[in-house]
Specification:
Layout (H helix, E strand, L loop, with lengths): L4 H8 L9 H5 L18 H9 L14 H6 L15 E4 L10 E4 L3 H19 L1 E2 L5 H4 L7 H14 L16 H7 L3 E2 L2 H8 L1
Parallel strand pairs: 3-4
Antiparallel strand pairs: 1-2
């Protein structure tokens, strides 16, 4: 058992045994030739800069401790040299804190990561669409024309009135006017087979 802080730090600096090989864990990923394949999402420097400019600087920092105001300042392109080096922080998973294998390396800004993941979800929603009768409120928020209030209202309408039979029924949802409907209708699917099975 390691008790000396310096020895713990030296052990934690060698994270190679913590990494997992994704291919072994996932195995063969089934392919469905009927559905289109999503393209790989690549982020350009301009896209990262745009996301950094949209960060709300009045929010608190994530677990990485980087304040959103600092991330916003990164868009100027002028950052100190020591910021250009990754700051890998060990984050405790579970088990004994004296075992290095119970930590995972972490070097991604949570604010930027959330923005990027949201962007990927929005891209998937735009590419594939969502089934209005089975999707969650959180997923609905990523559809053009819907915000958190409208998404909540859609879910409440669905729970009160049953499944949507057509997209036109979205016009009955509180707070969803003609413009919002026009923006979101193209991304919403109604699986008629699911509706028939549900109504039997």
């Amino acid at each position: 058992m390691v008790v000396d802080d310096e020895e713990k730090a030296n052990i934690l600096n060698t994270f190679s045994t913590v990494f997992t090989v994704e291919n072994e864990m996932l195995g063969e990923i089934p392919r469905n030739n009927e559905n289109p394949i999503l393209r790989v999402t690549n982020l350009t420097q301009e896209e990262v800069r745009n996301r950094l400019n949209k960060i709300k600087i009045d929010k608190s920092p994530g677990p990485d401790g980087i304040h959103p105001r600092v991330l916003r300042e990164l868009t100027t392109g002028s950052v100190p040299q020591d910021w250009r080096i990754a700051n890998v922080v060990p984050i405790f998973k579970k088990g004994s804190k004296s075992e290095p294998g119970n930590y995972r390396p972490h070097d991604v800004s949570q604010v930027l990561l959330k923005g990027t993941l949201d962007s990927v979800v929005e891209e998937c929603v735009s590419f594939v669409g969502v089934d209005i009768n089975i999707c969650s409120e959180i997923l609905l928020r990523h559809i053009a024309g819907l915000n958190s209030v409208r998404a909540k209202n859609v879910i409440e309408w669905r729970e009160k009135n049953g499944p949507f039979i057509t997209r036109e029924q979205l016009k009955c949802v509180k707070g969803l006017g003609p413009k919002s409907f026009q923006q979101c209708a193209g991304f919403i699917r109604v699986n008629q087979e699911y509706v028939r099975n549900l109504l039997r």
